[in-house]
Amino acid sequence: MGAVARVLGLGDAFAAYARDHEAASIRRCWSTWNVLCTFLYTGEQLAANPMQLVGRPKLAKALPKALPRTGVEALLETVAQDRDSNRQTDWAERDLAIILTALLAGLRAEELRQADVGDIRTTDDGAAVIHVKGKGGKERSVPTEAELLAVVETYLDSRAIRFPQAEKRRAAEGSGLARWSARSPLFVGRDGERITQGTLQSRIKRAFKRAGPDAQPVPGALIHGLRHTYATELAGSDVSVYTLMKLLGHESMTTSQRYVTAAGTETRSAAARNPLYAMIPPSGNVPSQASAADADPNAPRQMDR
After folding, report:
1. Helix (H/G/I), strand (E/B), else coil: 142
2. Which residues contact 48 (CB under 8 A, 6 or more apart)?
3. In this structure, what is the dihedral angle of CA atoms 25, 27, 33, 39, given to the nearest 10 degrees?
4. Which of 11, 58, 268, 304 sits at a 20 to 30 Å CA gap from 2?
5. What DSSP string runs through 3-55?
6. Strands of the sheet with 139-144, listed across from one edge
7. What is the pLDDT of residues 40-94, one digit of tens each?
8. Tens-place pLDDT, residues 139-193
9. Three-class SS of residue 125?
């Protein structure tokens, strides 16, 4: 069997295959052969796995895609229309709070699900800080403005109307955050319990679908697309890579750098410093031959023909 594998010349075979196949197809083919050869090697049918010597193309790292502002507007307007809906599954105040928390605080889907009311702490100036329990138990604090806090508290007030006998509701009088215990889940489903992953995804998917062509979601990343939008908007506002890393909860600055690259602000700023821009005439027009000749009496003139 080992002799057969050598005769096959896997390296040459994959080189020929690569000439008329995309990188993703080549990688899938490589993986299939690697599984087979690993199985044969484990069963002592091969002396070694020859696939370790066969190269495979690296997948290009796609830049994060963000929603355009027209898409964000369409999405928010669509959700707002549900205020007049009689469907039990529709809850405009909650869905709006979820979408805006993702757009203005950059929370991941699971971070939205696991957030508690007590994770939002107000500041003296009427704004708030969201304490996020991120990947791997890593925590971060995300500052938000009063406008987002108002949206969240409006949702919490509507929740008190939906669930007036909720066990976790505080006895003390108040509105918004004050009506709920710190350990109460921030976002709940129509049963009053912590929102499920399925409900979260389905509500966002429905909003995108109804928002029309202006709000095309990032393929395979509904809520994460909102997080991409948050990061890209900040990168476009010249927020430093280090600050982005802290706000997004990234382990590596390299991950955050991708948003700066996607926004194009850093490369544009560098390109704009090219001193050759100073050579462009103020009007932006290239001087004609006639005007150049008039300006220089020693300049050669074309003869009439």
Report:
1. strand
2. 41
3. -140
4. 58
5. HHHHHHTHHHHHHHHHTTS-HHHHHHHHHHHHHHHHHHHHTTSSSS-GGGGS-
6. 120-122, 128-133, 139-144
7. 888 888 888 888 888 777 766 666 678 888 999 999 999 999 988 888 889 999 9
8. 999 999 999 999 999 999 999 999 987 755 555 567 889 999 999 999 999 999 9
9. coil
User: Distance (Å, rounded) from C-alpha 195 to C-alpha 193?
Assistant: 6
CATH annotation of 69-217? 1.10.443.10
Alpha-carbon dihedral angle through residues 212, 205, 150, 82, given to the nearest 10 degrees: 60
Element (H, E) at 110: helix 109-114
269 is written with which tokens?
């700023």
Long-range CB contacts for residues 153-158, cutoff 8 Å, separation at least 24 = 153/177, 154/93, 154/97, 155/93, 155/94, 155/96, 155/97, 156/117, 156/180, 157/93, 158/91, 158/93, 158/94
Would you kindly state where each structural domain of the chain is located, as residue ranges? 2-53, 69-217
d(CA 267, CA 257): 12
Query: Residue 188, Cβ neighbours under 10 Å: how many?
Result: 21
Tell me how far apart the alpha carbons of residues 144 and 131 are, in angstroms, rounded to a whole number: 11
Taking the alpha carbons at both ends of the chain, their separation in whole angstroms is: 83
Q: How far apart are CA 119 and CA 105, in angstroms?
A: 13
CA 180 to chain centre: 31
Q: What is the DSSP string of 148-181?
A: HHHHHHHHHHHHHHH-TT-TTB-SS--SGGGGB-
- For residue 77, what are the CA distances in angstroms to 67, 147, 183? 15, 17, 31
